[in-house]
Structure formats: C-alpha cells, structure tokens
Design brief:
Blueprint lengths: L1 H29 L16 E4 L13 E10 L1 H4 L8 E9 L7 H9 L12 H4 L8 E5 L20 E6 L7 E9 L30 E9 L1
Antiparallel strand pairs: 1-2, 2-6, 3-5, 3-7, 4-6
Length: 222
C-alpha cells in the first residue's frame, strides 16, 4: 500500500510539472503570429471664415455702425469627390478680447473678470480690453434654414447666433453675417431718448478702447 501511494504522488507531481510547462508555452505560441491594420485619416476644417479685423475706430454714443464677415464651406468639404457628409451646423458666439493674442492671455480673459469693472486701472484691463461684446448684434444677411441672429444688448456669455450650410444642391455653401455696433452711452450721460436702461457703460471707462472676439464654432457635421 505504501508503494502504491508513493507511485501516485510521483505521477501527480509529474502531471503538475507537465501542466506548468503547458501554461508557460501558451504565451510563446500566441506571439508567433501578428496582423497589422493600418489606420490613417486626413483632418481638414469644414469651414472657412473670411474676416479681417473689424476696427470701428472712434465711435460715439447711440451711433450704429456696420461691419461683417462671411462663412463658407472649405474646399475639402465642398469637393465633389467628398459625398459622405453634406451639412454643417455652427454657432456664432463672443468672448472677451486679450490685448495681445497668446494662449495664456486668451485663457485669462475668458476665465477671469475685473474686480471693479468701472475702474480703468483694474488689473484685468492690463491683459484684456473692456468688453464690447454685449453691444454687437450679429445677423445673417440672408436668412436661410438654420440661421438665427443676435440683437445688440444681450448677455454675451449665453447669447448665440446659429448658422447652417448644406451642399446637397449646391445652393447654401456660404453665409454672410452683418455685425452692428450699437454704441452705448456712459452712466449719467445718456440722452433722454436712450431706451436701453441698464446697459450703460461705467463713466470711468470713457476714452478706453473696447474689444470683443467673435468665435465661429462648428457644432455638427453630417
């Protein structure tokens, strides 16, 4: 009986050793064959925006001055060889303008606010212009499907214009936008016919240069 027990133990140990060798060999066989799937993509912008800087120069309260820009499909999007996507939705929004366009200044202006908006010496204004955005209306010159504008005297942080381009029939490949500056007055100096109470500028900012960046952002391509 003891001999039989010893023999069984030897067989069990041998079997475990064989199993261990088999487990070690599995990853070695798995590495003997590999297949490569090449993935590439050319990334292009869907839109082209035509706009030089809009410089209204020196303006006066209650003037209305016009500017503008245009938006169109890019060459790669409108190419006849590209038929997979045909429509673009985009928004027109506005953000505070840095005095010097660098990524650091842009991030600061977008994420910070002046401690005292009416003080031209507030540290915020060393990097960013006083904000002009609320006084700029933005309207499509020709209203087509999906195009909506923004009137002046709005909350620049939430107000959005929308645009839509569709190359399906080749008839909506560009939009023209009109930008109106509806010049506000300074607090305590407004004319009697001023109708936008609550939108006056702080009197301490008189003689300052104001600024705003208009952003055109694609929201959907389909």
């Amino acid at each position: 009986m003891r001999f039989g027990t010893t023999s069984m133990k030897k067989k069990l140990i041998l079997g475990l050793l064989v199993l261990g060798v088999g487990l070690v060999m599995v990853p070695m066989f798995a590495a003997f064959e590999a297949h490569v799937i090449n993935v590439t993509a050319t990334i292009e912008n869907a839109l082209r925006v035509h706009a030089a800087a809009i410089d209204f120069g020196t303006v006066f309260p209650q003037e209305v001055i016009l500017g503008g820009f245009s938006v169109e499909t890019s060459d790669s999007f409108s190419a006849t060889t590209q038929q997979r996507v045909k429509k673009i939705d985009y928004v027109v929004k506005q953000k505070p303008k840095p005095r010097v366009d660098t990524p650091e200044n842009t991030e600061f202006c977008h994420n910070s606010t002046p401690t005292n908006p009416g003080d031209p010496n507030d540290p915020y204004y060393a990097t960013c212009y006083p904000i002009l955005c609320s006084y700029l209306s933005k309207h499509p010159k020709y209203v087509e499907e999906g195009d909506t504008g923004i009137d002046a005297f709005h909350d620049w942080q939430t107000a959005l214009g929308t645009g839509h381009l569709d190359k399906t029939l080749g008839i909506d490949l560009s939009d023209q936008w009109i930008v109106d500056l509806d010049v506000p007055c300074f607090g305590g100096q407004c004319a009697q016919d001023w109708t936008h109470q609550g939108w006056e500028l702080p009197a301490g900012l008189e003689h300052q240069v104001f600024g705003c960046d208009i952003w055109v952002e694609v929201t959907n391509v389909y």
